[in-house]
Design brief:
Helices cover 18% and strands 31% of the residues. It has 395 residues and is an alpha/beta fold. Strand 20 and strand 21 form a beta hairpin. It starts with a helix and ends with a strand.
């Protein structure tokens, strides 16, 4: 067995070199930007009002003027107007261009408008107030975004503001999910006493949907010849295989030997962790990768979160995020393995705290129903005290 840290390092060394594709802006939410984005003009592109009110020349106010004749209205989206007379003003809307010969905006609530005369009700007015200056956010040509960021609504808005109706993103890999085991039946079927429904594949598919990937689902029976023939076709059409089950040491765990007949090269098999010890990882010709996850549902879930997701993020050039939380109770774990605990998170006065969720083992799928994160305890020591902080993987 190798350590969790060694396993993750080896997986990241085999990250994919994903190509780029150009997609419509409205389809880009959640995808990873693959281009640098610069300001095509100043942000904002002109001096603009940040309040509805009256645009004046602050020198008139400093000279004692308090009543300003309204010459005209400057609307948002209209060409820039010009203040013609000293001691006058222009009524202005939020977002409108600041009129020529004005340098301050006084909001409606600080004025009394009577007979087209705005009477200022405050004692202090200064140049630049309530004005968003041209280029004060970004100058034309400045970098707004770099490649390797996940596109959010704010990023979509920024891309739209620079005229990008289409955007370059990293192409998502084609993923096949293969469940294994003759004990599994489809979810619509009524299982016999010795059978269970096929849940892992759907759990993995749902997790991949959260990454924007629509995976293909397959089931492999415990018959080596059939398994080999099916895998040969699946491998031809996909870049990533996520296998659930048949990677341990049972007499019907045929996957390792079947994969070997298909030019599979094992990078590692078995990790010093609980759950998920039997995990298999390796490569296929054409820079394809295989994640062989143990069949117990919690093991499948944990290995997906701790190993597949970092591989995908690295392949998409997304940086990893480290987080820690404090245990709320003592934990004892004797085996010399890294222990991944499903936990419920709480924020107590700015400190992130983690309460372990009770479980009967890696077959207890219900134990992760309320989990916010996986908290990873090191292989040694065997006792971990409340108040100690350990790394977590947010779900």
């Amino acid at each position: 067995m190798i350590s969790v840290e060694e396993a993750l390092q080896l997986i990241l060394e085999h990250k994919a070199a994903l190509p780029l594709e150009e997609i419509d802006l409205l389809q880009s939410m959640g995808r990873v930007l693959a281009q640098e984005v610069t300001a095509d003009r100043d942000f904002p592109p002109f001096d603009r009002a940040t309040m509805d009110g009256f645009a004046i020349n602050s020198h008139d106010f400093a000279s004692g003027a308090r009543a300003f004749l309204v010459e005209q209205i400057q609307a948002a989206g209209a060409p820039q107007t010009i203040l013609q007379e000293t001691g006058s003003c222009i009524e202005i809307m939020t977002g409108a261009m600041l009129p020529v010969n004005t340098d301050a905006v006084i909001p409606y609530e600080d004025c009394l408008l009577q007979d087209k005369v705005a009477k200022v009700q405050i004692e202090h007015v200064k140049a630049g107030q309530n004005i968003h200056r041209r280029g004060s956010d970004k100058k034309a040509g400045e970098t707004l975004l770099t490649a390797g960021v996940q596109i959010t609504p704010a990023i979509v808005g920024t891309l739209a503001s620079v005229g990008l109706a289409k955007v370059k993103v990293y192409k998502l890999p084609k993923v096949a999910i293969c469940s294994t085991g003759d004990e599994l039946v489809e979810i619509k079927e009524t299982p016999l006493p010795h059978q269970i429904r096929r849940s892992n594949a759907y759990m993995l598919a749902a997790a991949l949907q959260g990454e924007g990937i629509q995976a293909s689902l397959y089931h492999l029976p415990d018959v080596p010849q059939v398994m080999e023939a099916s895998l040969e076709k699946i491998i031809a059409e996909h870049e990533v295989l996520i296998l659930s089950g048949a990677v341990s040491k049972g007499k019907f765990d045929f996957l390792p030997q079947v994969l070997a007949t298909l030019s599979f090269e094992s990078v590692f098999h078995r990790i010093a962790q609980k759950p998920g010890k039997p995990m298999l990882f390796g490569t296929l010709p054409g820079q394809k990768v295989v994640f062989g996850l143990p069949g117990n549902p919690v093991s499948t879930f944990v290995c997906y979160q701790l190993f597949f997701r970092p591989w995908l993020r690295a392949s998409l050039n997304l940086s990893s995020v480290e987080a820690y939380a404090q245990l709320t109770q003592n934990v004892h774990f004797r085996p010399n393995l890294t222990y991944h605990l499903p936990v419920k998170l709480h924020n107590h006065l700015g400190l992130l705290q983690a309460t372990p969720i009770q479980s009967t083992g890696s077959g207890d799928l219900t134990s992760i129903l309320e989990a916010d994160a996986l908290l990873s305890l090191p292989a040694v020591p065997d006792t971990f005290s409340a108040g100690e902080a350990f790394p977590i993987t947010l779900l």
